[in-house]
Amino acid sequence: MAKVTFSVDDETVRMLKATSERLRKPQSMIVREAVAEYAARAGRLTEGERRRLLRALDEITGRPPTRPQAEVAREIAGIRRSRRAAARRRSAQ
Question: Structure pTM?
């Protein structure tokens, strides 16, 4: 275990001590568990971010296409051919 020093406000200290006593766990364990839980959630979108992105997606998908489907299909096929060729070159090296 590593020892670290950090500063927190009085209210956080009060909550840490109260939680530690209530759960009958050492304060260091409470902090470890809290940091682990926070880290697990940190990469997820908040509800507000999720709604904003869904609204943007709805707006984009509701717009009429700007190019013919055949042109888009040709471009995608060209990209796939290019990626396959690059993958073959890498595996041959």
Answer: 0.51
